[in-house]
């Protein structure tokens, strides 16, 4: 099974695309109106899938600049970091492609983390959510976030958390995220505005 699984996606996708099939979309009915899913996103030209190396040339980094500073990332940098993520495991960078233009128009990352607590459980973090500004307001933000959230559930994570600006609280509340009383603070210590990309030894 291990070898078969590797042959079908390794090198092609950051993670096995079959993980996005048959997620529990019925459990989130009402959050997206009309109801769309990652496998039936409402338009034939919308494709929700794991990140690929080829996305470097499909505008993946360009849309991330609508979220934060990306810096000068060469293809070699991108490939090294992609392979770091693949090797490390636990990185589920998911994108939406407009197949008419072959451009990445949305992205969100689920990062899973092994814990000793919660019975050696797995927790999830939501990171780097963005939709290209010309495609906003069409539920694609909700679609990509709910996709990776359902994926976290499928992976067996006991919770998924995120940090966001105040004005986005209603966006996340509409898709099930809650501010837990006494537990909704986010604190930061910055070491570097543009962290270096390094390969773990
Ligand atoms: C964990 C993190 O990564 S937090 C960082 C989030 N990303 C960013 O801030 C990057 C810039 N912003 C974006 O890329 C987009 O505005 C996103 C991803 C936040 C939302 O994408 P969209 O495709 O526009 O979202 P979508 O169409 O699914 O909107 C759903 C609802 O959220 C609301 N909403 C969307 N964006 C915003 C916003 N910036 N501020 C307030 N409300 C918003 C919409 O009004 C809509 O409400 P409705 O369903 O009642 O009409």
Précis, in short:
The chain is an alpha+beta fold and 201 residues long. It contains six helices and five strands, in the order H-E-H-H-E-E-H-E-H-E-H.
Can you give keywords for this protein?
single chain; 201 residues; alpha+beta; Aminopeptidase; 5-stranded mixed beta sheet; 6 helices; binds acetyl coenzyme *A
Descriptive notes:
The protein is α+β, with helices and mostly antiparallel strands and 201 residues long. It has a single domain, classed as Gcn5-related N-acetyltransferase (GNAT) (Aminopeptidase), CATH 3.40.630. It contains six helices and five strands; from the N terminus they run H-E-H-H-E-E-H-E-H-E-H. The radius of gyration is 17 Å and the shape is globular. 22% of the residues are buried. The structure holds acetyl coenzyme *A (ACO). Acetyl coenzyme *A binds next to strand 4, helix 5 and helix 6.
């Amino acid at each position: 099974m291990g070898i078969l699984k590797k042959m079908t996606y390794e090198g092609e996708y950051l993670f096995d695309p079959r993980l996005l099939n048959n997620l529990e979309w019925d459990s989130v009915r009402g959050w997206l109106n009309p109801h769309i899913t990652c496998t039936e996103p409402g338009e034939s030209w919308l494709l929700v899938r794991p990140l690929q190396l080829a996305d470097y040339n499909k505008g993946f980094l360009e849309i991330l600049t609508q979220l934060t500073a990306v810096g000068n990332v060469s293809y070699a940098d991108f490939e090294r970091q992609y392979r770091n993520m693949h090797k490390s495991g636990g990185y589920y960078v998911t994108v939406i492609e407009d197949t008419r233009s072959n451009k990445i128009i949305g992205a969100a990352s689920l990062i899973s983390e092994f814990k000793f607590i919660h019975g050696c459980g797995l927790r999830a973090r939501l990171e780097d959510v963005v939709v290209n500004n010309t495609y906003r307001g069409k539920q694609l933000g909700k679609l990509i976030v709910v996709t990776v959230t359902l994926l976290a559930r499928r992976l067996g994570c006991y919770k998924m958390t995120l940090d966001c600006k105040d004005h986005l609280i209603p966006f996340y509340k509409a898709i099930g995220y809650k501010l837990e009383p006494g537990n909704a603070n986010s604190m930061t210590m910055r070491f570097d505005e543009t962290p270096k990309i390094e390969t773990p030894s």
